[in-house]
Specification:
The protein is of the alpha/beta class. It has helices at about 30-40, 50-60, 80-85, 110-125, 135-140, 160-165, 170-175, 175-185, 220-235, 240-265, 270-280; strands at about 15-20, 45-50, 65-70, 70-75, 75, 95, 130, 150-155, 190-195, 200, 205-210. The chain is globular.
Length: about 280
């Protein structure tokens, strides 16, 4: 897979717009990691929509993002904020949804309604979408599935996929390629099944990624992967190619980071820098 071309006669609009809907009172880091990595992967413009405590925390870490503060219901985005978020989805926007979206030990009914309405709106607008983490878990809890976006990349780990497919984890791990194909056909998108030898499928083709190491087995690294995928999609890389290339970049970033910190010591917050270095190594 080739990296997107960077025309020198360009501006921020040339490289796409990501709207990242992420974070909650309990998971502020997920919003930062997924947002900043989309920029590191080459997107021209990234907006984070989240509850105010998340916006305050992330804005203290970086001046590089645009922020849309949202009202909360408990620790999470209130479902009443759907219209405010939908208003930010313009033509060509790539949406990433789900990183750190739910709270700890809270009723998930309201945030589940928010995700259901948003997925239907993204499908109606034909918006390219990355669905990760709590977005996937909330989807698995819905008795009736919403209409899903046509251009969708789903990024489950084995436990999240087990919830979606109602299969046990050992069964998924026994034939990861088959599980990814089944999920891609069931949900009509690209499925990236995370783990050692990450698997990507569009329901027909299956690609196994060969980069990465145990440095990536740490909380927050999946949020970084979501940011890489969203950043590539924003630059016009097709969804299957973006998922394959992002897995390669993400794995290589882990390898490069572990050379400095060891496989024990790499933090998810180290990885955005190494995403940039991984892209440089692939050029």
């Amino acid at each position: 897979m080739k990296l997107p071309i960077r025309d020198q006669n360009s501006n921020k609009a040339s490289f796409g717009n990501v709207l990242n809907i992420a974070g909650s009172l309990n998971y502020r880091g997920a919003a930062y990691l997924s947002s900043i990595t989309a920029l590191r992967a080459g997107a021209g413009y990234v907006t984070l929509a989240s509850v105010e405590p998340v916006i305050n925390a992330v804005s203290a870490l970086t001046p590089d993002l645009v922020f849309v503060p949202l009202k909360s219901n408990g620790p999470c985005i209130a479902s009443s904020e759907f219209e405010k978020v939908a208003h930010r989805i313009s033509l060509g926007t790539v949406v990433s949804l789900g990183c750190g979206l739910s709270g700890i030990d809270r009723d998930r009914k309201d945030i589940r309604l928010f995700v259901w309405k948003l997925l239907e709106e993204l499908a109606r607008r034909n918006t390219t979408t990355v669905l990760d983490a709590d977005g996937l878990n909330l989807l698995s809890e819905m008795g009736t599935l919403p209409v899903l976006p046509k251009h969708l990349v789903m990024t489950p780990h084995p436990k999240e996929l087990s919830r979606l497919l109602k299969l046990d984890v050992p069964g998924i791990q026994k034939d990861r390629g088959l599980a990814a194909k089944i999920a891609a056909n069931r949900f009509g998108g690209i499925v990236l099944l995370k783990g050692h030898d990450t698997v990507i499928s569009d329901g027909e083709k299956v690609v196994v990624n060969d980069t990465g190491n145990s440095a990536l087995a740490k909380a927050g690294t999946g949020d970084v992967l979501t940011g890489v995928i969203a950043g590539l999609l924003a630059q016009g890389v097709p969804p299957f190619d973006a998922a394959v290339l992002a897995a390669r970049i993400h794995g290589l970033a882990g390898e490069l980071a572990s050379k400095e910190f060891s496989e024990y010591g790499v933090l998810a917050s180290d990885l955005p820098k190494y995403v940039s270095l991984a892209i440089k190594a692939l050029q």
